[in-house]
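Objective 1b. Sequence-to-structure analysis of Diacylglycerol kinase.
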Amino acid sequence: MTSDITLFVNPTAGRGRGARAAQPAARVLRDAGFRVRTVLGADAGDALSRARAAVAGGTGALVAVGGDGMTSLALQAVAGTGTPLGVVAVGTGNDFAQATGLPVRDPGAAARLIATSLKSDGGRPVDVGLAGETYFGTVLASGFDSRVNDRGNRMRWPTGRFRYDLAMVAELAGLRTFPYRLRLDDGPEREVEATLIAVGNGASYGGGMRICGGARLDDGLFDITVVGPCTRGTLLRVFPRVYRGTHLSHPAVTTYRAARVSLAAPGLTGYADGEPLGPLPLTAVTVPGAVRLLGG
């Protein structure tokens, strides 16, 4: 194993925590005997190109420093390559880190786990989802959730998470179901009226909302959560339960498990790891053990 490690840094993650976290993480890794170089990018595309170049050049590990968006970019670079992935989670949501038991907002502790894992087991295999050509680690969302994201992304004011709170209020005012066509594995296509459908490689999205509360990253299967027709009042009453995963027992919620999921519905966008994938229809498949995760 090479002793060179690449830090893949988002300097703006968590209101600047990404930039601040890179230094203590690098210090721990250097103290452990590794040579560390840092990769930044002018934008997401440039950063990903640089990360892929580091992987192709034989880096011993790619360590994402930032939030779920940075981890998602890192997955695109390492999935299927054998290059281990480390995660120093200092973003706002950090759902991938939480799903894998990694430290959150503690760059020194995360770096120590990464160093120990590199010297011992080289990381453990974890699954990722693949939708089109995009890998994802946590949840592919569609329906009400994606409409909130669409609206929030179009808004120029206010900034930060409050923008998405306002977007949620606006979408609640026009709450409706969507006519989905859903296919699981090689089963028949079924028509489903749903408020939202979430496909979970991991359990949570949005900073701890356990929409697919039983999902695991090492079983080769997605957990699929279908929220059927419900009123605004029901949605508001059930929403707090999402953080505990207890919403899954509500009569309006149906769950499935499958290795391949196809979703189609007019006018909906799919989001994976919080990033837009594009309009439905989309098909997602699990890729078992596609990434070696350090310290998880």
